[in-house]
Structure formats: C-alpha cells, structure tokens
C-alpha cells in the first residue's frame, strides 16, 4: 500500500477517535435521529409556498436605530440574502452576535445599550430566519450556515471577529471558530447546542418522541415554548404575546429548518469544538430547561482555553433575562483577550 494512502487512513482514524468528534456525532445521532424517526414530516408544499410578513419585532428597528444609531443593512451572499443590524465604529473591535433557533437578530437588542461604544456590533438574521432570505430548495444545516457566515464576513472585510452565539447560534459560532480560526479572536458559547451533558432536560425527552416545543402551531404552543426558554414567567408571558403571530406563521418553515439542523449534522471529520484554540467563555443559565447546564461542563472540559460563567436564576436566553450581567461578562472577557 502506498505510504500516502496509509497516512490518509491513519489521519481519518485519528479524527474519528477524537473524543469531541465522537460526542458531536453521538449527540446528533441520538437526539436527531430519535426526533426524525417520530416527528411528522413538514408539508413541503406549504414550505415552498411560504412567504414572510412584517412582524412585531421588526417595528423596533426604526425606533431603536433613531435612539442608538443602529443601522439596518442587507446584502446578497451567493444565493442568500442576509439582513443585519450594525452599530459602532469600524475602529472598535468587532463583536458578532448569533441568535438561536426560532429567534432573530432583535433578541440581542437588550444587550445593545450595555455594549454601545465598546464594539462594532454585527447582528445578523441567520439565513432562513427573520428578515434574511429563505428558500425551500436550499440547505440549512449547521455546516451550510457556518460557511455562509464565513463568506459574509469575508465580503464585509471583517478579518478579526469576536463571536457570541446562543443555542443553535452557539453551535454555528463554535464551528466557525474551529473551521476558520484565522478570523476569530475570541468566542462566547451561550447555552450552546452541540455537545451532550451528563443529564438532559424534559425538552430533549420530548424531542426523542418527535415532540418539539420550539415549533408551536397555536397560541397554547407559543406559551409552552416561552415557558421552556424563560425562567422568568412574567417575561415568558410577555414574549408569548409579542411573538405568537410570527411563530405560528412560520410553523411549517420552522419545522423544516429544525429537520435540516438535526438531519444535516456537523461533519465531525473536520475541526470541531475540541480543536478550538482561541479563548472561549462558556456562559450558561443555571435554570436552562432546553439544554441542560451540565452541557456547559462538557464544553469547558473539551476546549483547552475555556472558562465558565454560570448565571443563576436565568434560563436559555441570558441576553434577554439578564442583559446587564451578560453584557458585562462579555465585555470583560473579550477586552481581556484582544
């Protein structure tokens, strides 16, 4: 056997046997395949014919922009349209904020008053979400989303970026850092998807039976969603009121996007979380009922330069439930590693 082929096979076995790679595959194999086996298939006619409409959070754009100097931008990246909020001088360090599943760029608005003046903020709607483009013929797995963001950042000329990702956005942020370390200065994984903990939540138990509280189809389902992502019940009720129309309107598209996320799982033969060498802050709400807080310890154990910040009395969305604490932790961590 030629030596080059032997080396390739040795490298392939080494990658497959890495602990982080096995955990990534195990996580998506267990939860993703369990969900796909039991969940109903999305109605692809409804998905293909779906069209976005103006929803309540979009009305905050002009108000917030006038108050704080936030600018709404849009551009085409290949076949994708990306819409984002931008704020701050290009002379400041760049901070990229990535939202999670069933969310949008507006979910980061509570942090912005506390980050203003410290960073150039880039806050996109991930492709398929919010005001960014959706196309039923495109793929929206974590790999595809990661590469779209890398191309978008290249087009913006953002050569060095600090990235914060929540939930699904955390998985994308982690993969972006692992795959493109040359452009990432620091990473904050906030209640991030991607690795299993020692325990899992009732939400994950439901997923294994094909039930997904992140894809509500009626007002009662929206209340169940907000109850699972927020620890603060008053905030959960308020969020349900403002988001119900949009979430119900997107139900078929969101079911499709969830299937894309769990079926098109990350390529663990490439660099993954344990290969990250940049400084990482693992931030987690101690009351997270979506991704169990024990997941935070898996990330911290596998990533060499990781440190942790557990936030008491907070659920899956720390940037909304505790924006001041969250922003201060991000500022201190990022500035320390510039």
TrEMBL record:
InterPro entries: AB_hydrolase_1 (IPR000073), AB_hydrolase_fold (IPR029058), AB_hydrolase_sf (IPR050266). Residues 93-323 form the AB hydrolase-1 domain. This is Lipase. The lineage of its organism: Bacteria, Pseudomonadati, Pseudomonadota, Betaproteobacteria, Burkholderiales.
